[in-house]
Amino acid sequence: MDVVCCPLDKADLDLDVDERDDEEILAGTLTCTECGETYPIEDGIPNLLPPDMREEATA
């Protein structure tokens, strides 16, 4: 978590865990402490694309 930051403003991210397997986080969210943007964690992989790029990637 020390090397991961918000791609929009480079601020710290808060972790909210929904599902965990031992030491690995499988699902949850990362929330920027400055702008409040949230980034999903799915299947253990955080999606740190900015919101507009995230929407294009899922379309």
TrEMBL record:
<dbReference type="Pfam" id="PF03966">
    <property type="entry name" value="Trm112p"/>
</dbReference>
<dbReference type="InterPro" id="IPR005651">
    <property type="entry name" value="Trm112-like"/>
</dbReference>
<protein>
    <recommendedName>
        <fullName>Trm112 family protein</fullName>
    </recommendedName>
</protein>
